[in-house]
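Kindly go through the entry underneath: sequence plus fold tokens. Please state briefly how this chain folds according to its tokens.
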Amino acid sequence: MNTKNVIVSALLIMLGLVIGLIGHGFYVKSGIGSYADKDRYVSVKGLSEREVKADHVIWPIVFKEVGNDLSELYSNVNNKNKFIVNFLKDNGISADEISVAPISADDREADRWSSNTIPYRYQLKSVITVASDQVEKVRELISRQDEFFSAGITCESRSSSFNGLNELKPEMVEEATRNARAVAEKFAADSESTLGGIKTASQGQFSIYDRDENTPYIKMVRVVTTIEYFLK
């Protein structure tokens, strides 16, 4: 092989290496750019709230009797239980909405650890629970609980709940997602970017709580979604 051919071959090899390096550098640069684009995103939250009426109520009617004659105490408690159950049934509460717990008895003489004298040895406790979807009806009866007081019966605090969450979930999630996107679009516009697709999305837990302590029959339902959008 003459000198001219050797030089030409060497030049061709060098040219090939340069082209290869340039091409390799282009793909590396392109890859870095693509990776950087994927790393640009914004995380936003969307809120949805509803005010709803409770659709279920639990009302424990509790009273206690104290004395030294156990059989007499049981008789008094049973008579009061009958009075309460009749009152509830006469005012629109069905039998399957009423449960009467077994009477509990406490012998304070047997369990006493103090040397102090106690006036009454026995304490009996009765609990009658109303569990009903007739929220307004139960509210009406609660407002008449002074009729229990005259019979020596006191009532503990009631609780209410909302069971229609599954019907609200789809529209609330949709609203929360829509609100999250509106926030993301505003962020993208302010940062001179274009909003891309969703990177990740998570639906927060639904929470149900009383609107305030005076209206436990009115509930607030709340959900927050967290969504990450790509930015271009």
Summary: Strands lie at 41-53, 56-67, 98-100, 104-107, 122-132, 154-155, 159-161, 195-203, 207-210, 218-231. The CA atoms of residues 53 and 218 lie 5 Å apart. The radius of gyration is 37 Å.
